[in-house]
Specification:
By secondary structure, the chain is of the alpha/beta class. The protein contains 24 helices and 18 strands.
Length: about 575
């Protein structure tokens, strides 16, 4: 297949109306500074999504766009295919050989206009290269599924049960070009550092991090017990155990991670926090590390923050229909309070970042105070709260009011002082975004009044309250039809649709679910709701008023997703009402 080489990505996107000439110019300038591909820079600036970029390139260049969730990035059953391109090239350049017919090799890659890469592949393989397009996220997942960090990690764990290494075993540590250690040891404990630097320990830690990133894990839990070290990954909100190393390596693995995170490896009695960064190809992932002393040693939790996985499109997140219309209308308010509610891990921060991305413009001053700052956003002034030195949410908010803000975001309203400043800011002409830990949208109102906010002040300041949860998506490869029983259909008032249940396959690690999406309950603060706030009605009464105005509850939203075949009834009920 011949690629029309006179076209450039920027020209294509401008022609399609996805970016403006000025946006393209800014992206090219940033690209010169960061040295990354133009497409990746445009994605980083949230000017275009991965999927849209691949789709448009495919259409303009006449090259197929392949998606992992459609099963289109599975290489043909050909033993020679996995050897035709060296794995270091596959992982470094993010390319995936899919099929070889005669002298024609079909390869999935991100940028079909990268003629240097295509020529290099042609020279290495001796084949004519037929490119197909895939996103970075899909390529990472497909490469891992094909060549398997998981298998390598399992072998490394099994090997750790042999005799202890004396430093001579194995001439060098296993190196991945996808893993780059960006930290240096600043510790004085030479014996502990030497132990943590053993070949086998470095290999296990590197593979563990690689497996966590490619599995889309949000957290790694490393837990010491009397005779073993347990390792679990939180994938799609659920902890899953993986193979663990031999007990004699426990202290060395913990020390290795603490060294990477710039922690004091000699301090084992107190909790510590640290962090570091790893790279997979040109993709960086920030890792936040927390340790706490437990009875058998130190438990470590590593939070993975992968900016490339940050979704900023409301529809991709799960917002649709009247809820989407209410949110898009609400965030255009010139001033007022918008709250996002839900328990920890329900995706509130993602919704906040998506909203900030939509509100961002050269004509607006956006300020945030967060604890911690999870993702760094271009064009937004972000402040890390530091309560230990007096930089609390309340102190930051007071300072923001002297910074000529248009939009203010704070991570969470926790006390009366912070809530009062939010209300005052909203009433004096600022749009304020924040979160609360409540079960539903109406409960946010009673939470604020319980804190001490006067209903007469709260009523005119509120604009929108969004309650949300995350539900797991059914694996598209193995989900099975599962019509609900008549009594369940009647009890839940289920709509017509095609309902499915999880089964389990290789694609989803035999779980039946892969990925998550949000379900929403959007309470628009109408005159009727404002009146209910002033009259101090209960959360249930306010919720009923909102429902009469067309609000869908979390359960309603989740069951709609189930009727569309995206999740299961059991998953929705488990998340929304605790029933299975």
């Amino acid at each position: 297949m011949t690629v029309r080489t006179h076209l450039r990505i920027g020209d294509i996107l401008v022609r399609e109306g996805l970016v403006s000439e000025s946006q393209l110019k800014d992206a090219i300038q940033l690209q010169k500074n960061n040295g990354r591909r133009l497409g990746e820079t445009l994605i980083e600036l949230h000017l275009v999504t991965e999927d849209k970029l691949a789709e448009v390139l495919g259409k303009q260049l006449g090259i197929p766009y392949r998606r992992a969730d459609h099963g289109e990035l599975v290489p043909a059953e050909d033993p020679a295919l996995q050897k035709i391109v060296p794995q270091e090239i596959i992982r470094k350049d993010l390319v995936l050989p899919l099929e070889k017919k005669g002298s024609v090799l079909t390869i999935a890659l991100m940028d079909p206009l990268d003629l240097l890469l295509i020529d290099n592949l042609k020279n290495r393989t001796g084949c004519e290269i037929k490119p197909v397009i895939a996103t970075r996220t899909d390529l990472l997942a497909a490469i891992t599924a094909t060549y398997g960090a998981q298998d390598l990690l399992k072998k490394a764990m099994e090997g750790s049960y042999g005799e202890k290494e004396d430093g001579a075993a194995g001439s060098s540590a296993l190196k991945f070009e996808s893993i780059e250690d960006l930290t240096a040891s600043q510790q004085s404990q030479e014996d502990a550092e030497s132990q943590a630097g053993q070949t086998q320990v470095i290999r296990i830690v590197d593979l563990l991090l690689l497996e966590a990133v490619t599995s889309r894990a949000s957290d790694i839990h490393i837990e010491p017990y009397i005779n073993r070290l347990t390792i679990r990954l939180r994938i799609d909100g659920v902890l899953q155990a993986i193979d663990s190393p031999a007990p004699h390596l426990m202290l060395a693995i913990i020390s290795r991670i603490k060294i990477l995170a710039k922690m004091d490896i000699a301090e084992k009695r107190l909790p510590q926090d640290g962090g570091f960064t790893i790279k997979m190809g040109e993709k960086s992932v920030d890792l936040r590390v927390s340790t706490v002393p437990v009875i058998y040693g130190e438990k470590i939790v590593i939070r993975l923050l992968d900016k490339s996985n940050l979704v900023t499109d409301y529809k991709q997140m799960g917002l649709d229909g009247s809820a989407l219309a209410d949110v898009e209308r609400g965030i255009t308010a010139p001033y007022g309070l918008i709250f996002i509610t839900g328990p920890t891990g329900s995706g509130k921060s993602t919704t906040l970042y998506a909203t900030l991305t939509k509100l961002k413009s050269p004509g607006k001053n956006l300020l945030t105070i967060e604890d911690p700052v999870e993702y760094k956003l271009e064009g937004i002034n972000q402040v890390q709260a530091k309560p230990q030195i007096g930089l609390t949410f309340a102190a930051g908010l007071r300072a923001f009011l002297r910074q000529d803000p248009d939009v203010i975001m704070l991570g969470e309203v926790r006390d009366l002082e912070t809530a009062e400043i939010c209300v005052r800011a909203a009433l004096t002409g600022h749009l304020v975004l924040s979160t609360l830990h409540t079960n539903d949208s109406a409960s946010a109102i009673t939470r604020l009044t319980d804190l001490g906010i006067e209903p007469a002040l709260l009523s005119p300041s509120l604009v929108l309250i969004i309650a949300q949860r995350l539900v797991r998506r059914l694996c598209p490869e193995c989900k099975e039809p599962s019509p609900p029983l008549p009594e369940l259909r009647e009890k839940l008032n289920l709509s017509e649709g095609t309902y499915f249940k999880p089964k389990g396959c290789k694609n989803c690690r035999n779980i039946g679910y892969k990925g998550r999406m949000a379900i929403y309950e959007v309470l628009r603060v109408t005159p009727a709701v404002r009146d209910a706030i002033v009259r101090k009605l209960s959360a249930e009464e306010i919720k009923e008023i909102a429902r009469k105005n067309g609000m869908k509850t979390l359960t309603d939203s989740g069951l709609e997703k189930a009727a569309a075949g995206l999740s299961s009834i059991e998953e929705v009920l488990a998340v929304t009402v605790g029933m299975v």
